[in-house]
Write a structure and sequence with these properties.
The structure holds 2 protein chains of 2 kinds.
Chain A: E1 4-6, E2 10-13, E3 19-25, E4 31-38, E5 42-51, E6 54-57, E7 64-70, E8 73-78, E9 87-96, E10 103-107, E11 111-115
Parallel strand pairs in A: 2-11
Antiparallel strand pairs in A: 1-3, 3-8, 4-5, 4-9, 5-6, 7-8, 9-10, 9-11
Chain B: E1 4-7, E2 10-14, E3 19-25, E4 32-37, E5 43-49, E6 55-58, E7 61-65, E8 71-76, E9 85-92, E10 99-101, E11 105-110
Parallel strand pairs in B: 2-11
Antiparallel strand pairs in B: 1-3, 3-8, 4-5, 4-9, 6-7, 7-8, 9-10, 9-11
The chains are: A mainly beta, B mainly beta.
């Protein structure tokens, strides 16, 4: 079974702190994604990576950066945490479905981050 | 950019009842995905639809994509408490296996 793990389930940080959220997948997937999920707004893509050291901005990259030094690990960095970054953060990696050519995203359990 | 609207936003049903969740796109759908999320957890892939008129089933859940490929429905037959959660539709979104998600439908099933 594919496994996507995230470093913390719950995290509380202070405004201005630098925050690292780690995500690891064990299936050699090329593509990895970071989303945030907020009530009424659904999942919004922050950043994604299609290969080691390759990254692209998603829909809401402001205030975030990412790092992908190894294929299995994709980190989300909040350079200076702010209260409006309080959210649920979800990491995913994706696999091509051979039958259809579509793809399936595998999600980690999420990190609920509170910035005070 | 593609927008996906889901309806209803939330749903409370009695166990054993059938229900339908809709997902409407502002653009033609080339790949439509359904995911389920248990409260406070990650998403689990249910199924993917690609062709107009396509229908797929998994256990008691059936998803359809209309002929015009702009609307999908998810139907649950004889709902059970294990069906409770948030259902999200997603659509292919510009390469690199990106998916744009709808805002979700929260389902509660009362025993």
């Amino acid at each position: 079974d594919v496994k996507v793990t995230q470093s913390s389930r719950y995290l509380v940080k202070r405004t201005g702190e630098k925050v690292f959220l780690e995500c690891v997948q064990d299936m050699d997937h090329e593509n990895m994604f970071w989303y945030r999920q907020d009530p009424g707004l659904g999942l919004r893509l922050i950043y994604f990576s299609y290969d080691v050291k390759m990254k692209e901005k998603g829909d809401i990259p402001e205030g975030y950066s990412v790092s992908r030094e190894k294929k299995e690990r994709f980190s989300l960095i909040l350079e200076s945490a702010s209260t409006n970054q309080t959210s649920m953060y979800l990491c995913a990696s994706s696999l091509t479905l051979e039958e259809t050519g579509g793809y399936e995203q595998y999600f980690g359990p999420g990190t609920r981050l509170t910035v005070t | 950019s593609q927008e996906l609207e889901q309806s209803p936003q939330s749903l409370i049903v009695q166990e054993g009842k059938n229900l339908t969740i809709n997902c409407t796109s502002s653009k033609t759908l080339y790949g439509l995905y359904w995911y389920k999320q248990k409260y406070g957890e990650g998403l689990i892939f249910l199924m993917m639809l690609q062709k107009g008129g396509e229908e797929k089933s998994h256990e008691k859940i059936t998803a359809k994509l209309d002929e015009k490929k702009q609307q999908s429905s998810l139907h649950i037959t004889a709902s059970q408490p294990s069906h409770a959660g948030i259902y999200l539709c997603g659509a292919d979104s510009g390469g690199y296996q990106k998916v744009t998600f709808g805002t979700g439908t929260k389902l509660q099933v009362i025993p």
